[in-house]
Amino acid sequence: MLQSIVHVCLAGLSQGMFIWLVASGLTLIFGVLGVLNFAHGSFYMLGAYFCFMVLRALGENFWWGLLLGPVCVAAVGYLVERFFLRRVYGLELPYQLLLTFAFVLLFDDLVKIFWGAASIGTPPAPGLADSIMILGRRFPSYNLFVIAVGPLLALGLWGLLEKTWAGRIIRASSSDREMASALGVKVPTLFTAVFVFGTWLGALGGGLAVPYLGLLTPGMGEQIIIEAFVVAVIGGLGSLKGAFLGALVIGLLSAFGTRFLPTFDMFLTFILMAGVLLWRPQGFFGEAR
Amino acid sequence: MLLDVGGINTYYGTSHILQDVSFSVDSGEVVALLGRNGVGKTTTLRSVMGLTPPRDGTVRLQDQELRGLAAHAISRLGVAYMPDDLRIFPDLTCEENLQIAAKLSPRTGYWNQERVEELFPVLADRRRQKGLNMSGGEKKMLSMGRALMSNPQLILMDEPSEGLAPLVVRALAGSIMEIRSHGVTILLADQNLKFCRQVCDRGYIIEKGRIVHQGTMEDIWGNEAVVKKYLAL
Description:
The complex is a heterodimer.
Chain A: H1 2-33, H2 40-57, H3 62-83, H4 93-115, E1 120-121, E2 131-134, E3 137-140, H5 141-163, H6 165-175, H7 177-182, H8 187-213, E4 215-216, H9 220-235, H10 240-260, H11 265-279
Antiparallel strand pairs in A: 1-4, 2-3
Chain B: E1 3-12, E2 15-25, E3 30-34, H1 41-49, E4 56-61, E5 64-65, H2 71-76, E6 79-82, H3 94-104, H4 113-119, H5 121-125, H6 136-149, E7 154-158, H7 166-181, E8 185-190, H8 193-199, E9 202-207, E10 210-216, H9 217-222, H10 224-231
Parallel strand pairs in B: 3-8, 3-9, 6-7, 7-8
Antiparallel strand pairs in B: 1-2, 1-4, 4-5, 9-10
């Protein structure tokens, strides 16, 4: 029983870390730009495919793919923000959602055109292809690596936002765009930078998912963006702390659901979201509006 | 002439707020924009700052045309803004609120954190406090201090005396004289005529988006008809 619970927890934590990586970029972009970016799941998908493309080109080494793939996707994010999203900041939310949703469809089809509609098998990560014994059962060491990367990234983001001047300027601009501009912040440039960084975070999640999933599928971004949205809502839209804890909760809940109540797997997640929306609509760490 | 505003028209959507407004501020002067609530004082300051850009006319800072520039560019040329609602960043500490202005400004000069805290000693006691948790009076000093930290040539102050007790207004007048003595030019919008008489050289009276009267503060103070018509509450 203990063995089973520990392994379900580990599976839940590693799943939660992917959701966190996607939700962190989503949350950062919403917190600063005020845009709910539906296409964020597509950046996760593109991160996985670009990582795969780079690893193929550079001799089947996953680590090169993880390093360079997300950077390529960040460049795609730059084009999206600079030439499309920037035009709809002043418009109402539905326009922003429509535009970003259009990108979801567009990226899905582009992936099918370039890589085909069928799933693609991927190689494991060099050095982490084994599994280790935990309480007498094997657990993939790559998944432990993922469980370690998530909190490190959270710590890095926290340090960036709280302890550097770039971070303080981002926080100031997200709470009061106009006053920040009156103090000399070039807000459009800041928005581009934050969007590109958020895109990179989502793509990094996708890159990390390559050895974890072992399979790439067009449309793989949709499942995760829904979970990331749930996490963002539960944690409080715009709150990174909330997104991190929300991702842990959803990851664990979904792992326990799959193990003990397989029929109600996703159901539990949405019950939790409905409950949070009813009792605390602003989420755990969101500010009441 | 430090600031020369010529014939600006500013709109909010389709409503025509400022109509052909012209005025000027000399280097080293303290000039008041006077008038009742809602006559366009705030819009005038926002027009200069580039936050509500005028549709036509000119806004010159020395020889540089400001109209058409974004607020961040205007700020970098040495114009600072203290809004009437102060706009302290709630999530940053008092010290960070001050330092952020210095970090964002390319300008250097007399003002730094130490000098601002000399001018407003209470800010030194509140260094680690979040903006969120500061009192109204402290926020006012912080907002003024933050404007100084960018070492501006010109500060635009919106309603500096609003909501302050008479004794505090007197202290504020002292601070403004001190700021002025270091070569900072000030354009302020206020409704407190007595306070403006203490700190300003000249004043412009605005009524329904137009400048209807101008003169030295002593002239305005002594002109009962004008005071009664445009300023009496």
